[in-house]
UniProtKB/TrEMBL annotation:
<protein>
    <submittedName>
        <fullName>Peptidase A2 domain-containing protein</fullName>
    </submittedName>
</protein>
<dbReference type="InterPro" id="IPR021109">
    <property type="entry name" value="Peptidase_aspartic_dom_sf"/>
</dbReference>
Length: 374
């Protein structure tokens, strides 16, 4: 219609009524009462919202099903913690606790924690302490994703763990640890380690090079600890004599998990053109930017999305931006203007441009998983 009508006349009542008449009847009837107060652009925006509500479009957010419980989890890279809603019994017996602030804005009431073991059909079980929150859906957050090194592809709606390499056995390694030249073993392992592995992942790789029957030699336990951060070594070195190398790895994993829970693992990326810092949020439907404080835009009187705490997300319109996320190309996109305080790169953007989220290495990756360097 913009190609047929001069822009200065597009917001005349006649054209607004015509727009409404061209819409499906049940949407048009709702919008008739707004034609005198709102512009043609806002009426079209309201029509988009109503169409979204009535057509029940497919959920483009990535999800995963736990084989054990049958529960569906939303994979939300923009949420710093993983959580589940309380059961009816937990609502009755657990007292509401502290208010937990969400990265996307707002917050949720926390009831407590529950340890669950989940199976996402990746070939191994994943135990985790999930927060019990006053929410409507279970969420796999950034803490879980970073800890288990899971990559997110919104286009294919799945998660995929990084597979540890399985280097061929090298018998020449044996002479090095027998002569205590562990620097050669370290050089061998450095070919495969990226610096983000958990202690158990490091031990698994060590097993590819050294037979199990000699792994518990004190020399190799000291070598294993030397591959961990200094703070880990200081805690575990006194236990080296009494613990097997497996026990040391398990204890180190507990320390590692505590660090990942304490640190916020969500990913922010700065647009080099506008300077805006976007939260990469696979759990949000549409990419958004906050309304400018000097803007005269009025909020759309109807809404379709809510924040984690159930409050509505108010929409004001769209803004076309070209963003440069430091990935060898720029990305043009129509961003939704909302009352959120934080700019979001959401599932629509990630899906359209086929971007995978790697929280362990804190970056976006373009293209298929097979192209991700190991």
């Amino acid at each position: 219609m913009r190609n047929l009508i001069p822009w200065m006349h597009l917001h005349d009542d006649f054209w607004k009524y015509l727009i409404v008449q061209l819409l499906p009847p049940r949407i048009g009837l709702i919008l008739l009462r707004y034609t005198s107060k709102y512009s043609s652009d806002q009426i079209a925006h309201m029509a988009d919202i109503l169409h979204h509500k009535y057509s029940a479009p497919s959920d483009i957010r990535p999800t995963v099903i736990d084989v054990i419980s049958g529960r569906t989890f939303v994979i939300d890279s923009g949420c710093s913690i993983s959580f589940i809603p309380p059961t009816a019994n937990e609502r009755r017996t657990l007292a509401p606790g502290k208010w937990v602030k969400m990265s996307q804005g707002g917050g949720l009431v926390k009831y407590g924690q529950k340890k669950l073991t989940v199976d996402f059909a990746l070939g191994y079980f994943m135990p985790w302490n999930f927060a019990i929150m006053e929410c409507t859906e279970a969420v796999i957050g950034a803490d879980f994703l970073a800890y288990y090194d899971l990559l997110i592809s919104t286009r294919r709606k799945l998660t995929k763990g990084r597979v540890m390499p399985n280097p061929s056995y090298d018998s020449s390694i044996l002479k090095f640890y027998r002569s205590e030249k562990t620097k050669y073993i370290k050089k061998f392992l450095r070919k495969y380690l990226e610096g983000h592995e958990t202690p158990s992942e490091i031990l698994s790789l060590l097993r590819c090079a050294i037979p199990d029957e000699v792994l518990n030699l004190d020399l190799l336990k000291r070598f294993f600890l030397s591959m961990l951060p200094l703070s880990f070594q200081q805690i575990l070195d006194s236990r080296r004599t009494f613990y097997s190398i497996n026990d040391l790895a398990l204890q180190a994993d507990k320390i590692y998990r505590r660090i990942y829970r304490r640190n916020n693992r969500v990913l922010y990326i700065t647009d080099r053109i506008s300077g805006m810092e976007f939260l990469v949020d696979s759990g949000a439907y549409l990419s958004q930017i906050p309304r400018n404080s000097n803007s005269v835009l009025e909020p759309i009187p109807i809404y379709r999305f809510v924040k984690p705490n159930g409050f509505p997300i108010r929409e004001y319109g769209y803004k076309y931006l070209i963003v440069d996320l430091g990935m060898k190309e720029t990305f043009p996109w129509n961003f939704l203007i909302t009352n959120n305080d934080i700019p979001l790169i959401a599932a629509d953007f990630l899906r359209h441009f086929d971007l995978c989220i790697d929280l362990r290495r804190r970056k976006l990756i373009k293209g298929e998983f097979v192209n991700i360097p190991k």
